[in-house]
């Protein structure tokens, strides 16, 4: 048994953690609203990867309620919600760009006192 | 052995393409490398025996959502000076440290005591039809049919909201 097969679940979980970090860095570092939205998509995909990894490699001593594929159903809902989020987020960016001629999130301060 | 090689190829692809999203100045390069990142991720999902989710990833994420992103980037047509310059502020340094610390804790927990040493339980070998359309559809339509229907309502609301917000005058 080689290293990969002895630690399969850990490989997928660490990849998900790195992908989540990339998305979070994009949200923290970049001021372009479009890139912030794309980084959020990266973070959502990291979460999906975690769901699928735990679905295939369950923790010892845990038995799921009902089916073993509940994690796959959760990923399905995350994908549907992410599509809705992207549509509304991009519509908001277009609406703000029309009034401010900018996509810099530092300039989105119309509600500031 | 083959599985390990494929995993490392896909993992390097995911991380390299994902890094482009964060590092590239022009969002169009970010959007196109994000499409590549989603294709590599679909490969990872196939390695996890999630056949339906892998194909949904390509059709919905790489297809529908990223077309929307590229369309908006083309529509806004940002000039070079509107992209703004990159500044390093103290808050950003704090943010980087916070992100790296959080990721370190998550990775440390994943590598730690969660999985004891020895062979891991593999549901893909234990359960017939793991990740197929039939079995995932059974879960969706039998045990989570209410969330499934509410999701359709959510998508309808999102379509209407996108039109109302983005259109200046109705």
Describe this structure in a few short sentences.
Chain A is an all-alpha fold and 113 residues long.
Outline the secondary-structure elements.
The complex is a heterodimer of chains A (113) and B (170).
Chain A: H1 3-6, H2 8-29, H3 33-56, H4 70-100
Helix pairs in contact in A: 2-3, 3-4
Chain B: H1 2-23, H2 27-47, H3 51-76, H4 90-111, H5 123-126, H6 133-143, H7 145-166
Helix pairs in contact in B: 1-2, 2-3
Features:
heterodimer, A: 113 residues, mainly alpha, 4 helices, B: 170 residues, 7 helices, 75% helix
Describe this protein's structure.
The complex is a heterodimer of chains A (113) and B (170). Chain A is mainly α. Chain A is built from 4 helices and no strands. The longest helix of chain A is centred in the last third of the chain and has 31 residues, at 70-100. Chain B has helices spanning 2-23, 27-47, 51-76, 90-111, 123-126, 133-143, 145-166. The longest helix of chain B is centred in the middle third of the chain and has 26 residues, at 51-76. Chain B is globular and about 55 Å long. With 170 residues, chain B is mainly alpha-helical. Helices cover 75% and strands 0% of the residues of chain B. Chains A and B meet through helix 1, helix 2, helix 3 and helix 4 of A and helix 1, helix 2, helix 3, helix 4 and helix 6 of B.
């Amino acid at each position: 048994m080689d290293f990969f097969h002895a630690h399969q679940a850990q490989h997928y979980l660490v990849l998900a953690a790195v992908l989540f970090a990339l998305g979070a860095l994009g949200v923290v570092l970049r001021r372009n609203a479009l890139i912030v939205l794309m980084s959020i998509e990266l973070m959502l995909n990291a979460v999906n990867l975690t769901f699928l990894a735990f679905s295939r490699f369950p923790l010892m001593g845990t038995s799921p309620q009902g089916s073993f594929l509940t994690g796959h159903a959760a990923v399905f809902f995350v994908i549907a919600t992410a599509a809705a989020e992207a549509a509304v987020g991009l519509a908001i960016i277009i609406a703000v760009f029309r009034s401010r001629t900018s996509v810099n999130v530092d300039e989105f301060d119309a509600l500031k006192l | 052995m083959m599985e390990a090689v494929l995993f490392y190829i896909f993992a390097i692809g995911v991380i390299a393409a994902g890094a482009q999203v964060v590092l590239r100045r022009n969002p169009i390069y970010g959007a196109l490398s994000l499409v590549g990142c989603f294709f590599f991720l679909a490969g990872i999902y196939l390695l996890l025996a999630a056949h339906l989710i892998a194909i949904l990833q390509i059709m919905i994420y790489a297809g529908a959502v990223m077309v929307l992103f590229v369309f908006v980037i083309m529509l806004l047509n940002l000039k070079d000076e509107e992209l703004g310059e990159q500044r390093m502020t103290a808050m950003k340094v704090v943010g980087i440290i916070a992100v790296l610390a959080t990721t370190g804790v998550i990775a440390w927990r994943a590598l730690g005591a969660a999985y004891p040493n020895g062979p891991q339980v593999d549901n893909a070998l234990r359960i017939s039809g793991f990740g197929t359309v039939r079995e995932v559809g059974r879960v969706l339509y039998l045990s989570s049919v209410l969330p499934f229907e509410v999701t359709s309502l959510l998508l309808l609301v999102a379509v209407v909201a996108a039109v109302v917000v983005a259109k200046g005058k109705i």
